[in-house]
Amino acid sequence: MTQEINRKDRILDVAEELFSIHGYDGVSIRQIASAAEVDVALANYYFGKKLDLFQAVFDRRAQLLSDTRQEVLKREQGKQQSLDQVIEAFLLPLKMAQQTGDPGWRNYLALLSYVMTSPIWNKELMGKVFDKRVSEFVAALKEIFPNAQDEKIHWCYHYMSGALALTLAQTGRIDRLSKNRCRSTDFDTAYELMVPFMAAGLREVCG
Amino acid sequence: MTQEINRKDRILDVAEELFSIHGYDGVSIRQIASAAEVDVALANYYFGKKLDLFQAVFDRRAQLLSDTRQEVLKREQGKQQSLDQVIEAFLLPLKMAQQTGDPGWRNYLALLSYVMTSPIWNKELMGKVFDKRVSEFVAALKEIFPNAQDEKIHWCYHYMSGALALTLAQTGRIDRLSKNRCRSTDFDTAYELMVPFMAAGLREVCG
DNA sequence: CACTATATTCAACAACTGTTGAATATACAA
DNA sequence: TTGTATATTCAACAGTTGTTGAATATAGTG
């Protein structure tokens, strides 16, 4: 036996991967069950309806991610941080998730991108867990730029959020455009350059 | 009669809207036909398979958008442009599309966002029409930053592309986070702030 | 052993899916 | 008028969808 993992988790893992690639409507429960080598009815037994399964997949790592983010922000709090440090702290949990080497996390980040960019899922799923942490991040930005208009700060976060979402999606487009000089899977470089890029943009618009 | 539009175009319009919201797998041909007040078989008569219909929807405005982009770039060529001007020229076709006031264009831009962020569709659809213009844009950036590493320029474009994609998606998230101080539908402000933001980021990373 | 809660399978349901071929209608040219 | 190309409808197909209830197995407890 290669790995001793229970069926319930295997269903979650497979669903996570397939949903992240094909989206909610692009995957059937039967496909998930088949890939997980499990009977169709078993997915229903554990998770209920298809929507609940999707929710369960999303929730599993969402809370963990949000908690890490809160922890990092609290740790750095009151330290008179620079703009670069604030941004870095915001990105750190994602960096950590990827650095575990767990392919499940990589799939989840792609799923997160799918949810972030979908007009339907965004409202339903992002609000519950992530919006609170984002508001804290925006508040930290406001402290750094006390004279900036709220709207400008929010638009800047929007740009950063978009850049992040496309990174997490791992579409392979940057590989194609750069003739393989850059890799969609190279999160390290993506984060490393993102920090000074976003900091400069913020200073320009809000400074 | 309120509007005299032929059924073929009406199918395209409806498909464009529904695909942009629910994605390819989230919409059935029957839903499209029903919303277009047309028989199911008629969609097949005009466009063939479902995949061909999706392709037709995507292609209809893609070429127009790419052509406008090329035209703008050519017009501005050899004018010793500033970085801001180059970025503005790149965004101009999208701005123009939105300023027509045609809701169809708005739907299409959301569909474009869906394609840009999907690992599956990206490869298949973005390459044919858009990648060429993007390469020209990246080349223009290289002229401005002749000493910058190729990879850095590509990553910067990646960030810009992500910010753009999330804007086109109109998810409503910025409305929620900013307590309605900002609007997802406010493309004018989004573009206006995006230019200095991206220019500053580029200068920081590539300058 | 018997009892019980959990886990898993099987078979089936009604609804919906994309697609098609034949039948019918419409428009237009000769 | 007739002939013909285009447009539109209708009915049906085989396959897939999410979901469920009953049957069976398994594991753990007394």
Descriptive overview:
The first copy, chain A, is an all-alpha fold. The first copy, chain A, has a single domain, classed as Tetracycline Repressor, domain 2 (Orthogonal Bundle). Helices cover 78% and strands 0% of the residues of chain A. The first copy, chain A, has ten helices and no strands. Chain A has helices spanning 7-22, 29-35, 40-47, 50-76, 83-99, 103-117, 119-144, 150-169, 173-177, 187-206. In chain A, helix 1 (7-22) packs across helix 6 and helix 6 (103-117) packs across helix 7. Chain A is globular, with a radius of gyration of 19 Å. The N and C termini of chain A lie far apart (59 Å). The mean pLDDT of chain A is 94. At the A-B interface, helix 6, helix 7, helix 8, helix 9 and helix 10 of A face helix 6, helix 7, helix 8, helix 9 and helix 10 of B. Chain A binds a DNA duplex (30 and 30 nucleotides) through helix 3.
